[in-house]
Design a protein that fits this description.
By secondary structure, the protein is an alpha+beta fold. It has a single domain, classed as RNA polymerase II/Efflux pump adaptor protein, barrel-sandwich hybrid domain (OB fold (Dihydrolipoamide Acetyltransferase, E2P)). Helices cover about 20% and strands about 35% of the residues. The protein contains four helices and nine strands. The protein has a six-stranded antiparallel beta sheet. A three-stranded antiparallel beta sheet has the order 4-6-7.
Length: about 120
């Protein structure tokens, strides 16, 4: 299942492991993404920590991790082709994979339907 944060980050969880990226809405708002500073493999992050930095023609933006966990893999294709995050933000443009997730924190995230309603309402609380 895929969950979304208010910071426009998605996490797809399968067998206790998560794949994370920015939403299509975030990619659209950022504009052309020119650089991604990927997280370090092995980093232990708490919910709300900076996962990585995404630079676009408009701004540099911190991407906030939606769940606590440990980074186990990063999408190195983004080093060569950062605009994968624009072309395919919710599939090929994923940022990292995490395990040791704190699934108790899932209650603070939104389902896909709830997220759609959230962005239709302006994307902010």
């Amino acid at each position: 299942m895929r969950y979304f944060s208010e910071e426009h980050v998605w996490i797809a969880i399968r067998n206790g492991k998560g794949t994370l990226g920015i939403s299509a809405y975030a990619a659209e708002e950022l504009g052309e993404i020119t650089f991604v500073e990927l997280p370090e493999v092995g980093s232990v992050l708490e919910q709300g920590d900076t996962l990585c930095v995404v630079e676009s023609a408009k701004a540099a933006t911190d991407v906030i991790t939606p769940l606590s966990g440990t980074v186990r893999a990063v999408n190195t294709a983004l080093n060569r082709n950062p605009d994968l995050m624009n072309q395919s933000p919710e599939t090929d443009g994923w940022i990292c994979r995490m395990d040791d997730l704190d699934e108790d924190e899932l209650s603070s995230l939104m389902s896909e339907d709830d997220y759609e309603a959230f962005i239709e309402g302006g994307g902010e609380e």
